[in-house]
Amino acid sequence: MSIEDFGKPFCHQAMWNSRLRTTGGRFFPKDGHLDFNPKLYHTYGLEVFRRIVRHELCHYHLYYEKKGYRHADSDFKTLLRQVDGLRYAPSIPSQKVAYQYRCQQCGQTYARKRRVDTSKYACGNCHGRLELI
Question: Which residue of the set 4, 56, 65, 131 is catalytic?
Fold first, then answer.
């Protein structure tokens, strides 16, 4: 893809990193490797993923050409437009809420991903006891 879109070879490693949460990929100037988020590939498909790869390759090639490779640099913005890369990664669907709590006094509900110790925590509005729904 690097030779096809940029006319230059990619000489380092590219790998999946499933720990990425808010970004489509990362470029590491220290050793030149690229990390990509597999969740975006599975969610949005090949075309969006190819545009994410182009974005990271813009960072890569501009860094090794000693040009502005950061997001705010005009060299980066120009090259990104030329190769039709994504400026921002699409949002990743969030995890669903696992626990629902309700205040026994005022009825306020709270959605949480983790369990809450109801003997230790209380309602933020009226300081009433919480119950797991």
Answer: 56
Total of domains in the chain: 2
Is 56 annotated as catalytic?
yes
Rounded to 5°, the CA angle 34-65-48 comes to 40
Q: What are the residues whose beta carbons fall under 8 Å from the beta carbon of 126, sequence distance 6 or more?
A: 103, 105, 106, 108
Asked if the structure places residue 93 within a domain, the reply is no
- Stretch 26-55: mean pLDDT, rounded? 94
Do 63 and 27 reside in the same domain of the chain?
yes
Please state the φ and ψ torsions of residue 71, each to the nearest 5 degrees. Answer: -60, -35
90, part of any domain: no
Note the pLDDT tens digit of each residue in 41-56. 999 999 999 999 999 9
